[in-house]
Amino acid sequence: MRFSTMLLPTLKETPADADVISQKLMVRAGMIRKVAAGIYDLLPLGVRVIRNVEKIIREEMNRSGAQEILMPTVLPAELWSESGRWEEYGAELLRLKDRHGRDFCLGPTHEEAVTDIVRRDVKSYKGLPLNLYQIQGKFRDEIRPRFGLMRGREFIMKDAYSFHATDESAEEEYVKMRDTYSRIFERCGLTFRAVEADAGNIGGNFSHEFMVMADTGEDAIAVCDTCKYAANLERAEIRPYEAKESGEDASTNEVDTVTTPGVKCIEEVSVFLDVSKETLIKTLIYNTDAGPVAALVRGDAELNELKLKRVLGAEFVELADDKTVEEITGAPVGFAGPVGLKIRIVADHAIRGMVDSVAGANEANTHLLNVNQGRDFEAEYGDLRNGAEGDGCPRCAGTLSVCRGIEVGHIFKLGTKYSVSMGANFLDENGKAQPMIMGCYGIGVGRVAAAAIEQNHDEAGIVWPAPLSPFDVEILPIKIADLEVRKAAFELYTELTEAGLDCLIDDRKERAGVKFKDADLIGIPLRVTLGDRNLKEGNVEFKDRGTGEVRLVAVADAAEEVLKSIRGAGQ
Amino acid sequence: MRFSTMLLPTLKETPADADVISQKLMVRAGMIRKVAAGIYDLLPLGVRVIRNVEKIIREEMNRSGAQEILMPTVLPAELWSESGRWEEYGAELLRLKDRHGRDFCLGPTHEEAVTDIVRRDVKSYKGLPLNLYQIQGKFRDEIRPRFGLMRGREFIMKDAYSFHATDESAEEEYVKMRDTYSRIFERCGLTFRAVEADAGNIGGNFSHEFMVMADTGEDAIAVCDTCKYAANLERAEIRPYEAKESGEDASTNEVDTVTTPGVKCIEEVSVFLDVSKETLIKTLIYNTDAGPVAALVRGDAELNELKLKRVLGAEFVELADDKTVEEITGAPVGFAGPVGLKIRIVADHAIRGMVDSVAGANEANTHLLNVNQGRDFEAEYGDLRNGAEGDGCPRCAGTLSVCRGIEVGHIFKLGTKYSVSMGANFLDENGKAQPMIMGCYGIGVGRVAAAAIEQNHDEAGIVWPAPLSPFDVEILPIKIADLEVRKAAFELYTELTEAGLDCLIDDRKERAGVKFKDADLIGIPLRVTLGDRNLKEGNVEFKDRGTGEVRLVAVADAAEEVLKSIRGAGQ
């Protein structure tokens, strides 16, 4: 492609309304343009990257035996009423009426539509398993669309849905998809982790998010330095401290009271008593569907309500209001403690290792010193706190570190939620009707491109992983007006194009500085620069966009060297 | 692909709500399923065909220098207000509101969106010409969607828009696109014609419809048997009869009146007077913006109002009501004739060749015999009637025949309609702002697939043109339970798949009859049948779906023979 004829409108200025790096660079590199909030045009450079992602996804999905279909964007309300989601789904579901006044929505996801296909055309276990996928524009009416393609309203998604006769089959497919997704993101040239996510009431490890690692990522992730364990920080399990032998470290100090007038929060208590937060017990009173509960974590930790729910087996947990706290503890908020409390007490594993702690006294303006579990109060123990850098891995002896990532894919065992509500049954080998067991598997196609940029850029612009790059190589003749330069550049361009490479040649009558800046911005991995001085000595310059490495190559060898560096030395 | 694991739900019964052959066969062959009126799922077999069409389109558009982009499906009302189409476009434009109450529509076409891109990012003649295309799902809320993918509400379209600094450039691109479209439909393996269509107020031959010829087509087309001329029948020009020398064939018979009580229409007059319709003059009174007009055509012809408009240079023409006819002719409807009429008379060229015609007498229950133009009335002559089988070609000495076709593409020089209303200007070489000149070029992707079936089918099912076929070859082992058969079939399948062919193997445990019926229905061009009897003699059977030709091939040569027949003898 010739730069001079391509719609490739690069910008010097960073757009004012862009929130994140990838959005800024995509706009500046002429990949996308905003049409309305969360709605974008993909310009030619953007389409090339998206097509690269789609091609990799399609090849790997097909290879794993999934079959491509295409469902409508505009879906009838009836299907969504059957699953109950017409009512349940919030305002993100864009509802509309056709000219006859019939209700439709723009598909944000296609569980109903695909279940409708399968219940209609698959009647027997012989037609199972089945994994159907599509690559399609979807619409979610986000209240605050932002971050460009990262959280748009209209976006391209690969969504796949599998149907099974048995749990084993569904779980086999789950593992197959986890491997398929790993191959997809590997082939995209991305550094990523498959991260354990909440599987809801399905049970087992059947929900994984695929995270592209990037410092700018929205999600904090705990990653083991030894094994493959990785989880969203707020869901990460933590290895409990080893339980201490009874009597070991046992304190002989008596509980003492201390007056702490108006000193309520952990921060204030720590300063007032001049003790570290690690010696404080934080006591939080919760209302739950299992009754009122006191939850204890060490003063330096954050309680994680998801974990509290799981430990209690509760459907909901909610911090108690001031009045309830006073009724339960007999003291104003800020002075709750475990000693003498009459309600159920659950404590984080870390509490078990504490000696001579400080806690609220359940009495206004008073704290207790030398509080010891077992002797002064009893509790149930569990994993209640947010993980942090340095925590122990729950799967091995390794240590967790915390890093950031961007969710680009999610795989999930759905179970029978949709097949039961929509009557997607099959006859088993005994002729008995059974609901199909389902799985679903999504990839945000535009998000993959955006995440690739978040992970691979520098101050000058994008640094594309080769598999996603809109072109294989950029040819940059410095003075296009110079006949020798032009001739050599177009000869190289023609030779490489005929060899099957996608080349961009910057044939614009622009200054070298402008061309170099644009090349860095657009970020094609390999740049071949042709200048009159180098050419006089029979050379062109190869530059690696990632490393910045520069080397001279004889012009006669240039095409072969480009092919070698792109296709590997073997070819 | 293995039939047993593919979602390929063929049906024995023809669906009750299918109107046309292609729709029936697509449903029966398991390519599509209806979700709502005019809204379909594409199942795996359907997706394969659509992807084949898209691939050919994409390759040829890219080859011609067009650049792929992707615009949103959901478009903001503001853009449509700028062009005036938010108000003008009828109920086919599906309008909707987002959660904030802002107006949007589902794009039925993208002139506004693409003009917005170009006006924003192209400022100078140096950025022109530009041809941008996309392949995308579109939505038109047709009042009566029908014919399956032929006239759906949601449908896949390739739409392209070009932008130019000069008329010459726009017209060059028009010709290039005409050639590109011809290459596309040729590569699809279709018999088609580029048919002249109405270019509105643009002038010149800058509107062509691409028609796939099929007896079941919606459109009647006049096609020359000698040159390339083809046009929609209602727009087809007709070579005028050669004008007769003055005095030649001149009649010496005097005009005579005949009483024709209650005999009004051509049919009745012809029977009543026992004369052929070719001797009658049909006189129609029109109200037009150029005043009242009498339009004459021969009794066997149909007046064409589009042509009448063109001959008159009128904006509107409308048949006069009974009262007006009586005022103008002095007689009730049914007895109008040219003799003695005081209003402007325009006549079809054929009238000039008539001698001793019969016409109304402008008097109740009376007709005139021996009416002759020139002597008894004067008229302006032009092309006023619908063409018919046997008419002369307007471009050469050939003869027109009438056949039927399905519109699959349309190319059109748009001019400055959108660039003027939306302010898409560029600076010319003198620094003067000018509106860009535009062209637009559409292909209905699903329609191409449907039209291919209308053109290529028999009683048993589809007969795919090879380039669109969902698979290159079907391998049909008759008794899959027979180890020898199964082994030979899968060996062939593996060898061909590894050679890069798309193979379908019918590995179902079904009776031979069921498999043969499904193979005919699905319509893959080449079928290789493996039966135990043939195999014992070392043979397999090749069958051409189109010709029905059958031949035995040695099993050892089967793979090579398949490759030869698909890729041509050269490979």
What does this structure look like?
Chain A has 571 residues and is an alpha+beta fold. Chain A has 15 helices and 31 strands. In chain A, the strands form eight sheets. In chain A, strands 3, 7, 8, 9, 10, 11, 12, 21 and 24 form a nine-stranded mixed β-sheet that branches. In chain A, strands 16-14-15-17-20 form a five-stranded mixed β-sheet. In chain A, a hairpin with a 2-residue loop joins strand 25 (457-458) and strand 26. In chain A, helix 2 (44-63) packs antiparallel against helix 6 (167-187). Chain A is globular, with a radius of gyration of 30 Å. The two termini of chain A are 24 Å apart. The interface between A and B is large, with 59 and 59 residues.
Short structural summary:
The first copy, chain A, has 15 helices and 31 strands. With 571 residues, chain A is α+β, with helices and mostly antiparallel strands.
Note the topology:
2 copies of one chain form a homodimer.
Chain A lengths: L20 H8 L3 E5 L2 E4 L1 H20 L3 E2 L5 E3 H7 L1 H4 L6 E3 L5 E4 L4 H11 L8 E10 L14 E11 L2 H21 L4 E5 L10 E7 L5 E6 L5 E3 L23 E4 L6 H8 L7 E8 L4 E6 L6 H8 L4 E3 L2 H8 L14 E5 L8 E4 L5 E6 L8 E3 L17 E16 L1 H6 L2 E3 L5 E3 L1 E8 H11 L1 E2 L2 E2 L10 E5 L5 H16 L4 E3 L6 H11 L3 E5 L1 H5 L2 E6 L5 E5 L3 H10 L4
Parallel strand pairs in A: 3-7, 15-17, 17-20, 27-28, 27-29
Antiparallel strand pairs in A: 1-2, 4-6, 5-6, 7-8, 8-24, 9-10, 10-21, 11-12, 11-21, 13-19, 14-15, 14-16, 18-19, 21-24, 22-23, 25-26, 29-30, 30-31
Helix pairs in contact in A: 1-11, 2-6, 2-11
